[in-house]
Amino acid sequence: MTKRDLVVQISNDTGMIQQDVHAVVQRALDILADAMAKGETVELRNFGVFEVKLRKARVGRNPNEPSHDVRIPPRAVVKFKAGKELRVQVLKLSSVYLSRSQKAESESPKQQSSVTD
Q: What's the pLDDT tens digit per position in 37-55?
C-alpha cells in the first residue's frame, strides 16, 4: 500500500476531498518523522511503536575484497515493534501463506507430469 492508496481509501470512506486527506496524512507523517528525528519514541496504540536506537560500530567485509575489513561507524536507526492487535492480525496470515504453499506443493507434481506428456 502506498501513501496514495491510503489517501484514496480514506477519501472514499469519509467522503472528504482527496487533496484535504492528502494534506492531513502528509502532516501526520511529518509530525511522526520530526519526533523520530529528535530521538523520540512514537507509540501508536493498537498499531505499534517506532523507536530510534543506536547501532554499535562494527567491522564489515567487502564481498569483492574479503581480505579488507571495513569499519562501519555507529548510527541511529528506526526500529518498529508491532502492537498486540496488529501482531495478532498478521499472525493470521501465517495460516493463509502456509495453506498456499501446501497447495502449490501438491499441484507442482501434476504440472511437471503434464509438461513431460
A: 999 999 999 899 999 999 9
Query: What is the number of domains present in the chain?
Result: 1
Q: How far apart are CA 45 and CA 109, in angstroms?
A: 46
pLDDT per position as a tens digit, 65-103: 888 888 999 999 999 999 999 999 999 888 777 777 767
Distance in angstroms (rounded) separating the CA atoms of residues 29 and 23: 10
Structural contact between residues 16 and 56, judged by C-beta atoms closer than 8 angstroms: no
Alpha-helix runs per DSSP H in 15-83: 18-37
Sequence-ordered list of residues with C-beta below 8 angstroms from that of 29, at least 6 positions apart, any chain: 3
Exposure of 113 in the CB half-sphere (CA atoms within 13 A): 5
Predicted model pTM: 0.69
Residue 16 phi/psi, 5-degree rounding, is -75, 155
Q: Is residue 97 part of a domain?
A: no
